[in-house]
Amino acid sequence: MQDWQYVNTNCLEITIEMGCYKFPQKNMLPQLWDEHKYSLLAYMEYVHRGIRGFVLDQRGHPVKNAVLSINQGKNITTTDEGEFWRILLPGRYTVLVSHRKYLPQILNITVDEGSAKLINVTLEQKLCRENTVDSIRVRGEGAVRIAVFGVDSLGKSIVQELANATCLPEDLFVEILQQSTLHLFPSMSAERALYLK
Catalytic positions (predicted)? Predict the structure, then answer.
């Protein structure tokens, strides 16, 4: 369970083996505590070292599942609230903050002795080189023409998300966009119907 917790939740669980007896007698516990309490408490204080903070988008909303890659050690992933934390020794680090929907950001940070350094990161959304006519998004260059349009506010929102998802080449859309041209209309009107002819 320890490895799974560390990889998936950034929770550092440990097993402390303090003596030769798997099940020490009750009268042995005070001595075991006295022999190990300072090292255990010092270890627990490490939670306050390193870096901590939030990854947010430009509107101040949390970015879930952003990945922080540090030039040494394991990658960490932000929580649903965009929160992250990483125990680090004092020193200089290069941190890459990335997410598939946002432009990556590289931070050069210095971690000092003492409390964890608060670092809040704002990521910018990826922008396409838009091939647009009156807010119509065109993706791909294939012979098959496909039109997708929204008929209400929810449809408009979904078409805009599709435009963002197809903005940069991703495995899911590469083959489709090689064989077809996708015309995305956030909303439909009589003038835009003429565009389809």
Answer: 17 (proton donor/acceptor)
- Look at phi and psi of residue 131 and say left if phi exceeds 0, alpha if psi is from -120 to 50, else beta: beta
Give the range of the structural domain holding residue 191, as residue numbers without chain letter.
132-195
Domain boundary among 122, 157, 177: 122
Q: What is the C-alpha separation between 92 and 112, in angstroms, rounded?
A: 9
How far does Cα 43 stand from its chain's mean position? Answer: 28
With a CB cutoff of 8 Å and minimum separation 6, the contacts of 1 are: 13
Catalytic residues: 17
55 in the same domain as 41 = no
Residue 133 has pLDDT above 60, yes or no: no
pLDDT in tens, 153-189: 888 888 888 887 777 656 667 777 778 888 888 887 7
- Residues 82 and 98 occupy one common structural domain: yes
Strands (E), 71-133: 76-77, 83-86, 91-99, 102-111, 117-118, 121-122, 132-133
Q: Which of 88, 122, 156 lies at the terminal end of a domain, its last residue? A: 122
**Smallest Cα–Cα separation from 128: which of 156, 96, 163, 161?**
163
